Amino acid sequence: xxxxxxxxxxxxxxxxxxIISLQQQGDTCGDFGGCDKPFLGNLANVVCLNTRxxxxxxxxxxQFTFPYTLNGVEGTSGVFRVENLDExxxxxxxxxxxxxxxxxxxxxxxxxxxxxxxxLKCVCAIKCLGDTxxxxx
Length: 137
Hints:
Layout lengths: L9 H15 L29 E4 L8 E5 L2 E5 L1 E8 L2 E9 L11 E11 L5 E4 L9
Antiparallel strand pairs: 1-7, 2-3, 4-5, 5-6
């Protein structure tokens, strides 16, 4: 449920716009952490990354989760890649935990073909996770 006294999403919209801009620049390299860090990646590892995964929380502190299907297996995830922003409406792709548990995979998420749109007026907190590479985005 959205809070009736939260009529402005500009705080979150600015963060989301910055994340989208960074992701659209392609594979860039930089330093981990923070929603408004000016680049993606980590220079120490010289790994180029393309996604800043995020989580959303309601005013009650509940993390938003959405269903996905990946390779015929259904699940739910609370980790997303922002794809587009239209005023207070943010389109996101659901990221699933990487099913490749071998030691050759160092990236924690894979892209799904599941998307949703969230009204940022209904969000009370955004948490940015460590930048990563997600294939197929």
